[in-house]
Amino acid sequence: QACKMRPLKEKEIYAAYERAVKRLLGETNDLMEIVKQATLEGMNIKKPEDIEEIRSALMQARKAVLDLFKAKRDGDVSMEEYEVKYAEYSQQIAELEEREKNVHAHNLQCQLAQKRLQGSYELIDDAKANCADKDVMLKLLDAIKVIDKHELEFQFNCGIDIRETV
Fold first, then answer.
1. Beta strands across the sheet bearing 161-165
2. In the 3-class helix/strand/coil scheme, how is the chain assigned residue by residue?
3. Mind listing the pLDDT tens digit for each residue in 56-114?
4. What mean pLDDT is predicted for residues 142-155?
5. Contact 156/23 with Cβ under 8 angstroms?
6. Rounded to an integer, what distance in angstroms lies between the CA atom of residue 155 and that of residue 159?
7. Is pTM beyond 0.70 here?
8. What is the pLDDT, as a whole number, of residue 24?
9. In this predicted structure, what is the pLDDT of residue 85?
10. Residue closest to 107 by CA, chosen among 162, 23, 51
């Protein structure tokens, strides 16, 4: 008698949850399209060099060092020439290795961004198809707060809170 809250039926909570998810998904579809475009543009803004070209240049530079060593061994180049050429080749190899590392890191970032996008789309598609499914509900929600006797707040894991009237 002291409690002013009216009892909430489970079906009312699920109905409010479904409305909240539909509102979230309506906003999320627009947001996901913006995120997708921004991510794809970000991946293409700085198109990395072809990794095979870099690796080929690295092989050539390393072969040049080997040839230089053989030339020094055979007496075809002086020690001074050897040291100058060796320093040049070493610098070239270091730069190529750094470029290779940067391309590899960029490719990994692109793959991670694509996986995140795909995971987000799959979760949204799953939520659209099964928004009342308890497993999906548990994945999407962090908490459900009772605000007052006619209002619930659904706190989604993504940081969005949506209030619905029951």
1. 141-148, 151-156, 161-165
2. CCCCCCCCCHHHHHHHHHHHHHHHHHHHHHHHHHHHHHHHHHHHHCCCCCHHHHHHHHHHHHHHHHHHHHHHHCCCCCHHHHHHHHHHHHHHHHHHHHHHHHHHHHHHHHHHHHHHHHHHHHHHHHHHHCCCCHHHHHHHEEEEEEEECCEEEEEECCCCEEEEEC
3. 999 999 999 999 999 999 999 999 999 999 999 999 999 999 999 988 888 888 788 77
4. 86
5. no
6. 7
7. no
8. 73
9. 95
10. 51
Cα angle at 154 between 7 and 36, to 5 degrees? Answer: 155
Classify burial at 140, counting beta carbons within 10 Å of its beta carbon; exposed 0-12, middle 13-18, buried 19 or more. buried
Single-letter code of the amino acid located at 126: D
Length of the chain: 166
Written as six digits, the tokens of 31 are 């947001």
